UniProtKB/TrEMBL annotation:
EC numbers: 3.5.4.25
GO terms for biological process, alphabetical: riboflavin biosynthetic process
Domain GTP cyclohydrolase II: 258-424
Family: Belongs to the GTP cyclohydrolase II family.
InterPro entries, alphabetized: GTP_cyclohydro_II (IPR032677), RibA (IPR000926), RibA-like_sf (IPR036144)
Organism: Asterophora parasitica
Annotated spans, Disordered: 89-142
Coiled-coil portions: none
Feature: compositional bias, Acidic residues: 104-118
Keyword match Nucleotide-binding: yes
Name of the protein described by the UniProt record: GTP cyclohydrolase II
Pathway(s) the chain acts in: Cofactor biosynthesis; riboflavin biosynthesis
C-alpha cells in the first residue's frame, strides 16, 4: 500500500467524520487499520463500544440494526430506536488489547528472565510482551469496553501495585579469553548478573597486558575485579581455565592472576582516558549484515578505533619525540536486541517500516517505547573493569564514550559513570560518500555505493568485522531518523550535500 493511497484514504475519512452533511458513499480500500493511528483515533472518538480490533462496527450506526433499512447503506439509515440499538450493541469476543496487555504483565516481557510456567507458544500472539515499561494503550481508557468478568478479576490482581525499587545490580565475570580480531587482539569477558539471565559481554582491548614488558610510558591494565578474585574451592587450573591469568597463555606460559588491588593505580595524565562503547546486540546488523541499520559497522568501528595506537608525549627530556602505546578501552556488548524490544518485535517493526513508518513510529505502533534499553548492567560491568568509576573520586578511570546518542550519555551519567568526553561515531557511508553516486542504484553486477577505504583504515576480516563502508536507502533512512527523531548528534549528510 503506497503512502499516497494512505493519505487519500485519511483525507476522505476525515472529510466524512467532519462533514456537516453526510457525503455520498465512497468505497474505501481495505487497510490494516489495527496499525493505523488515524483510524484508531477515529475509532476511539466514535463511542464507548469500540476497540482497535472492531472499531468499524460503530462507524456505520445501521450495522447494529441488521433489519433496519439502511443497515448496509448508511445514506438511507434513519436512526432506529435507542432500545434496539442497546440490545444490538456489538460485543467483541476478543478482549481489548489493553486488557490483554495487562494479562501479559504476569508473563513478563520478551527480554525478561525466562518464566518457565509461561507458554512459549504465546509469543505467536500479535501482542508485544513488554507491558511493564510500556506507555498506556493508544486507545484512551475512557473509550474502552468494560472488562469482561474474567479479565476484571485478573486486573484486580495485577492493577496498581507500585513497582518495588530493585536492588543494585551485581555482576560477575565468569570467563575471559583472548580473541584475535582484524584490528588486533581483544579479551572477551562473559558476565553474569543479578538482574537478568542474559550473558552480557565486554570486549576489552588492552594488548599491553599480553606481555610483561613495560615501556617508559604505560597505562594500568584493564582487569576484571570479579574474574581475578579467588573463588571458593578452585584450583589454579580452574583459574587459568576461566581466564584468570596474566600475559599470554600458552602451553609453556600459565601465570595465574592476583586479585586486583582495591586502590586504583596512578595513571599518567598524558595518557588519554580509555575509549569505551556501550553496544546493544543487533543480530540483523552484526550477523546477517543487514543494511537497515549501522549496527554492524558501529561494532567494527568501535573495536577499530579503540585498538588504534595512542601517541603520548615523551615522558623524559632525555627521550626524543613522543612515544606510542597500544590502544586501550572496551566495548560492553549488551544483549538488548532491537533497542530492548527483542528480535521478534524488531522483525515486526521492520515490516511496519516497509509500510512506510520510521523506526520510532514502528516501535510505538507495536506498543513499545522508542527505546527500552537500560544501562545499569553496562555500568556495573565497566566498574568491575575499573573503568568510569565514580565521578570526582579516584575510584576507576574516567572514560571517553563512543556514541552519538545524547540519551545514552545521560543514562550512563545517571548511573554514576564518569564520562570525560563523548566521541562521535560518524557513519562510514556519510564520511566518504561521493554525491554523484546518489542517483545510481546498485545492480546485481555492481554496487556503486561500495567505496574502498584506504588500506591503513580498513583491514580485511573474516566476517563483517573489518568490512568496508556500505550504502543503501534503508540505511540512510535509519540514520536520518536517528538524527531527526532520536536527537542523535550527527551532521545530516543529506542536508550538507543538499540532497
Ligand atoms: N526496534 C528497533 N531496533 C533497531 C532498529 N534498527 C536497529 N535497532 C537496534 O538498535 C540498537 C542500536 O541502537 P542505535 O539506535 O542504532 O544506536 P545507539 O546505540 O542508540 O546510539 P549510538 O551509540 O550512537 O550508536 C540495536 O539493539 C539494534 O538491534 C529498528 O529499526 N527497530
Amino acid at each position: 500500500m503506497s503512502r499516497n493511497h494512505h493519505e487519500d484514504s485519511d483525507a476522505a475519512l476525515l472529510d466524512i467524520l467532519t462533514a456537516p452533511v453526510k457525503p455520498t458513499p465512497k468505497v474505501f480500500a481495505r487497510r490494516d487499520a489495527a496499525l493505523d493511528p488515524l483510524l484508531i483515533a477515529a475509532a476511539a472518538a466514535s463511542g464507548p463500544n469500540v476497540t482497535r480490533n472492531h472499531y468499524h462496527h460503530d462507524f456505520f450506526p445501521g450495522v447494529a440494526l441488521p433489519q433496519h433499512e439502511g443497515s448496509w447503506d448508511w445514506t438511507k439509515f434513519s436512526g432506529g430506536d435507542a432500545a434496539d440499538r442497546r440490545r444490538l450493541t456489538y460485543k467483541s469476543l476478543q478482549a481489548p488489547r489493553r486488557q490483554r496487555l495487562h494479562e501479559e504483565l504476569e508473563e513478563g516481557k520478551e527480554n525478561d528472565p525466562l518464566d518457565l510456567e509461561a507458554d512459549p507458544l504465546k509469543s505467536a500472539d500479535n501482542i508485544p510482551h513488554s507491558a511493564k515499561k510500556r506507555r498506556s494503550s493508544i486507545i484512551s481508557p475512557a473509550t474502552e469496553v468494560k472488562p469482561r468478568a474474567k479479565v476484571a478479576s485478573t486486573l484486580e490482581h495485577v492493577a496498581p501495585s507500585p513497582v518495588p525499587a530493585l536492588p543494585p545490580v551485581e555482576v560477575k565475570c565468569m570467563a575471559r579469553t583472548r580473541i584475535p580480531t582484524p584490528h588486533g587482539p581483544a579479551f572477551l569477558h562473559l558476565y553474569h548478573n543479578t538482574r537478568d539471565t542474559k550473558e552480557h559481554l565486554a570486549i576489552v582491548i588492552d594488548p599491553a597486558q599480553l606481555s610483561d614488558h613495560r615501556g617508559p610510558v604505560s597505562a594500568p591494565p584493564i582487569r576484571s575485579r570479579t574474574l581475578d578474585a579467588v573463588w571458593e574451592g578452585e584450583t589454579e587450573m580452574d583459574r587459568i581455565t576461566r581466564g584468570a591469568y596474566v600475559g599470554r597463555l600458552s602451553a609453556t606460559s600459565q601465570k595465574v592472576s592476583e586479585p586486583v588491588a582495591s586502590i586504583s593505580p596512578e595513571v599518567n595524565p598524558d595518557i588519554p582516558s580509555p575509549l569505551i562503547r556501550i553496544h546493544s546486540e543487533c543480530f540483523t546488523g552484526e550477523t546477517v549484515g543487514s543494511m537497515r541499520c549501522d549496527c554492524g559497522e558501529q561494532l567494527d568501528e568501535a573495536i577499530r578505533q579503540i585498538s588504534l595506537p595512542i601517541t603520548v608525549p615523551s615522558p623524559s627530556p632525555l627521550l626524543t619525540g613522543p612515544t606510542t602505546i597500544p590502544g586501550r578501552g572496551a566495548v560492553v556488548y549488551l544483549r538488548q536486541e532491537g533497542r530492548g524490544i527483542g528480535l521478534l518485535s524488531k522483525i515486526r517493526a521492520y515490516n511496519l517500516q516497509d509500510l512506510g513508518h520510521d523506526t520510532v513510529t514502528a516501535n510505538l505502533m507495536l506498543g513499545h517505547q522508542a527505546d527500552e534499553r537500560g544501562y545499569e548492567i553496562a555500568c556495573a560491568i565497566l566498574r568491575d573493569l575499573g573503568l568510569g568509576g565514580v565521578a570526582g573520586t579516584d575510584e576507576g578511570e574516567g572514560v571517553r564514550v563512543l556514541t552519538n546518542n545524547p540519551d545514552k550519555v545521560e543514562a550512563l551519567q545517571k548511573e554514576g559513570l564518569d564520562i570525560v568526553e563523548r566521541v562521535p561515531m560518524i557513519p562510514r557511508s556519510w564520511q566518504k560518500r561521493d554525491p554523484s553516486l546518489v542517483a545510481k542504484k546498485p545492480t546485481l553486477d555492481s554496487n556503486p555505493y561500495i567505496v574502498q577505504h584506504n588500506d591503513d583504515e580498513r583491514v580485511a576480516g573474516a566476517t563483517l568485522i573489518g568490512g568496508n563502508a556500505v550504502y543503501g536507502d534503508d540505511l540512510d533512512k535509519y540514520l536520518r531518523t536517528k538524527v531527526v527523531r532520536m536527537g542523535h548528534i550527527l551532521p545530516l549528510w543529506m542536508e550538507e550535500q543538499s540532497v
